[in-house]
Write a structure and sequence with these properties.
alpha/beta; Rossmann fold; six-stranded parallel beta sheet; 14 helices; 13 strands
């Protein structure tokens, strides 16, 4: 029996790619365990799919002043020793790390025990947690050709991001039925992330009448962002968050408005969905989404609208432009050279596990 430990946490983007690997890993005969933080969002997600979950202490590594910067290093040190004990007990042949601060002590504890580690970096440039982990990695998977120049020679592998198989199983008719939509009008799917986007939500709702003249809209607006005054608007369905239904909503969507998180845009690429990307601005992030979006725009996969430029007018223009030219975006995505991410990553795991 081969054994693998998956690790990653803090955001859904650090967990769902791990979850996407699980069916293939099971088929390959792996015994799978997961290490995350004590009470992070990853705990419920992983336990819900029946994978043994182990929590460790985790501290955030901040680039800005915060009193917790004085206490969190001790949590990281504690997490390192906890991870070491778990790895000695679980005896994995290989570790796959998707990122997030909880992964740093796991990766460093693995290096001490000479356990090979595969790291996946979703964004154009490595985040702080992955920067700390890269020296301990055997291989580093990435999504963008531009990322390779930021990684140690011989370690980087262009794979793309693992996509949940269930997303490919959506049915257009089911999505339309769930929303009580017509087959005779195109569907616009708006995804602002689990917390939603104030700018995107406002631009959609301020321009709802004009948009509804041409499109039916599925609006994933984020937790706490429902507008009850629009609950009965025909052709407009809003949800805080969806899970099982998402595959059907993707299937019936003709175009998508989305943030530019790496996993989100890789899903759009894999599903061949013409899209408008609205990346998080520099005031709310380190700029990784802006770089992700620029790469996709350069490759012809996406139309990019910067958040500072979002108005009801600019968004309407972007939606109409992408819909009118949707086939050119699909053609560009059809020429993507990214290999099957899941198969490529599992093959890497097999090679490293066999060497151990």
């Amino acid at each position: 029996m081969k054994r693998i430990v998956l690790t990653g946490g803090g955001t859904a983007g650090h967990v769902t790619p791990n979850m996407a690997l699980v069916p293939k890993l099971i088929d390959e005969g792996y015994e799978i365990s997961y290490i995350g933080s004590y009470n992070g969002m990853e705990k419920k997600l992983i336990e819900d799919i029946g994978i043994p979950y182990y929590g460790i202490s985790s501290g955030k590594l901040r680039r800005y002043f915060d009193l917790k910067n004085f206490t969190d290093p001790f949590r990281v040190i504690k997490g390192y020793f906890e991870a070491g004990k778990l790895l000695s007990r679980l005896k994995p042949d290989v570790i796959f790390s998707k990122g997030g601060f909880v992964t740093v002590p796991v990766v460093m504890a693995a290096k001490k025990r000479k356990i090979p580690v595969i790291i996946h970096e979703s964004d154009m440039t490595p985040g702080l947690a992955n920067k700390l982990s890269i020296p301990s990695a055997s291989k580093i998977c990435c999504n963008f050709p531009e990322t390779i120049e930021h990684l140690p020679e011989g370690k980087a592998v262009l794979t793309g991001s693992p996509i949940r198989e269930e997303l490919f199983q959506g049915k257009k008719e089911e999505g339309l039925k769930l929303c009580n939509f017509s087959q005779n009008k195109p569907v616009l799917l708006v995804i602002g992330g689990s917390l939603g986007s104030v700018a995107i939500n406002r631009a959609i709702r301020d321009n709802l009448d004009q948009l509804l003249e041409k499109y039916q809209i599925i609006h994933l607006c984020g937790r706490g962002n429902l507008d009850q005054t629009l609950a009965d608007t025909q052709g407009y369905k809003q949800f805080e968050y969806v899970k099982k239904e998402l595959k059907h909503y993707f299937a019936c969507a003709d175009i998508v408005v989305s943030r530019a998180g790496a996993n989100a845009i890789c899903e759009l690429l894999s599903l061949r969905k013409p899209n408008i990307l609205i990346p998080l601005g520099l005031e709310a992030s380190r700029g990784d989404q802006i770089l992700n979006a620029e790469s996709f725009e350069k490759q012809g996969y996406s139309y990019v609208l910067q958040e500072k430029d979002v108005t009801s007018e600019t968004l309407l223009n972007a939606v109409n432009t992408v819909y009118a030219n949707r086939q050119s975006y699909i053609d560009a995505m059809n020429h993507s050279e990214l290999a099957n991410p899941i198969e490529t990553i599992v093959n890497l795991a097999n090679k490293l596990a066999s060497k151990r």
